[in-house]
Amino acid sequence: MHGNQLLLEEPIRMASILEPSKPSVYCSMTKIVGTLGPKSRSVDIISDCLNAGMSVARFDFSWGDIEFHQETLDNLRKAVKGTKKLCAAVKKGDTIFIGQYLFTGSETTSVWLEVTEINGEDVVCLIKNSATLAGSLYTLHVSQIRIDLPTLTDNDKKVISSWGVRNNIDFLSLSYTRHAEDVRHARQFISTLGDLNQTQIFAKIENIEGLTHFDEILQEADGIILSRGNLGIDLPPEKVFLFQKAAVYKCNMAGKPAVVTRVVDSMTENLRPTRAEATDVANAVLDGTDAIILGAETLRGLYPVETISIVGKICAEAEKVFNQDLYFKKTVKYVGEPMTHLESIASSAVRAAIKVKASVIICFTSSGRAARLIAKYRPTMPVISVVVPRLKTNQVRWTFSGAFEARQSQIIRGLFPMLADPRHPAESKNATNESILKVALDHGKSSGVIKPHDRVVVCQKVGDTSVVKIIELED
Q1: Residue 234 to residues 96, 140, 300: CA-CA distances in angstroms?
Q2: Which run of H or of E encompasses 281?
Q3: How far apart are CA 95 and CA 344, in angstroms?
Q4: If you average pLDDT over residues 112-140, what whole number do you get?
Q5: What is the full DSSP assignment across 221-253?
Q6: Mean pLDDT score across all residues of the chain
Q7: Is the bond preceding 103 in cis, omega lying within 30 degrees of 0?
Q8: Orientation angle between helical segments 237-254 and 275-287, nearest 10 degrees
């Protein structure tokens, strides 16, 4: 984005529209977050969701009790074990809207009210539309009104300190984030809860306050969720797209994941999305979105597996025409000079991979930071993040770290983690010794992304130095 002008993609080849989609183990580089609920909590359905392309599971504690969600999470773990697919876990004029699973845009499941009179504690409103309110869950949203309530309620803290700690949640979705201080308070709270000090906090931007303080919130948060349904109430409809583009751009340049909600609402009850929804998914990918959250579509929708599958296919098609060259130049220009050592290595790895037409980038990392920086430059090929566990102690027992870092990579576009065996060296000249590099290459071959005679770019630390090298594979 330059000034107020949007950078457009170069013309799309019409031939690419007619090319058949090629199946891949990585359905798309863009990640899909599925909300697990009544229609998507059995081991079989969750397994199908994982195979269809879900990489992060979301647990929404605005409904359901702890026991319900625990049983669902136990089923997720069984499905992960059965499918051998890694998956992270996630928690959850004046105009008034009241409805269920706000807001579809069709206005048939939510009521739009306009305040006409205030009489003591009574608020008299004029109903502006016809709607049918059904079911047990309703949400109330007051447009552009500042509400002085804590971002983390006592009930939130109870759930996090019990269910969250017991299950080592990877991400915390901080609803209605209004200020950077909200993120700091949440981080201070979870930092006292054992292993949850590694839990990443994603700020959910849902109202005008969060929008106004977006830049400061982005600095504090580990990622951003753009709740377009609620934002569409505080913002005029014609402004929502502009905020989406600006917010995603800022997240991209900061190297932090941007997640978009409300994309294929109609698939809650239909097997196919509308044309407008399919275009919306593609445009989110072209904007630079890392992941897409499916809410009601998988929570209570009739076709959770099919929804994940078709969204993945749309993302994959959009990625084919993503203008990586333009994006790379924008990012390098934004970062400026002199670059940090790690930023220079990451951008060089991506440039090298594109120049030699590598099929994959393999990055060895312990904290995950190097791999995230590579993904920031949006390479056109998958990045296999090989997380090498580190041995740590609390003076009572020794444990390996690395599982958190591997799972948290699951929400970043183009990043596909694998947890290495700490007993294996990163590389070995002895062909009989199964090095981590050989394991990573074998993983790529079995996944179908690495073929004979392919070129592979490897990024790793050797002593105090970071090295980027190109490997040409034999048969």
Answers
A1: 10, 13, 26
A2: helix 275-287
A3: 49
A4: 58
A5: -SEEEE-HHHHHHHS-HHHHHHHHHHHHHHHHH
A6: 81
A7: yes
A8: 30
For residue range 339-397, what is the model confidence (pLDDT) as tens digits?
998 899 999 999 999 999 999 999 988 888 889 999 999 999 999 998 877 777 667 76
Distance, CA of 308 to CA of 264 (rounded, Å): 10
The backbone torsions φ and ψ at residue 187, rounded to the nearest 5 degrees and listed phi first, read -65, -40
The total number of residues shown for the chain amounts to 475
d(CA 262, CA 273): 12
Residues 431, 406 contacting (CB under 8 angstroms) = no
The DSSP secondary structure of 383-428, one letter per residue, reads EEEEE--EEEE-SS-EEEE-HHHHHHGGGSTTEEEEEPPTTS-S--
Burial 118-145 (b: 16+ CB within 10 A, else e): eeeeeeebeeeeebeeeeeeeeebbbee
Element (H, E) at 360: strand 360-365
Angle of helix 237-254 versus helix 324-335 axis, rounded to 10:
70
Residue 290, Cβ density class (10 Å: 0-12 exposed, 13-18 middle, ≥19 buried): buried
| Of 130 and 326, the one with more pLDDT | 326
Answer yes or no: are the C-beta atoms of 99 and 111 closer than 8 Å. yes
Residue written as token pair 């608020």 = 123
* Alpha-carbon gap, residue 340 to 351, rounded angstroms: 16
Q: Which amino acid is at 359?
A: S
By the 10 Å C-beta count (0-12 exposed, 13-18 middle, 19+ buried), 351 is classed as middle
Q: What is the pTM of this model?
A: 0.82
Find, among 329, 309, 208, the residue nearest to 267 by Cα.
309
- Inform me whether the pLDDT recorded for 167 exceeds 90: no
Q: Which residues contact 444 (CB under 8 A, 6 or more apart)?
A: 359, 360, 362, 384, 450, 456
Distance (Å, whole) CA 384 – CA 441: 9
Q: 414, 385 in Cβ contact below 8 A?
A: no
Q: Given this model, what pLDDT does residue 360 score? A: 94
Three-state DSSP class for 382? coil
- 213 is written with which tokens? 């303080």
What region does 166 belong to: left with phi over 0, alpha with psi -120 to 50, or beta?
A: alpha
Please work out, in degrees rounded to the nearest 5, the angle formed at the alpha carbon of residue 206 by the alpha carbons of 405 and 259. Answer: 35
Amino acid residing at 161: S
Domains of the chain in sequence order = 25-63+142-320 (3.20.20.60), 324-473 (3.40.1380.20)
Q: Residue 60 has what pLDDT?
A: 84
Q: Which amino acid is at 128?
A: K
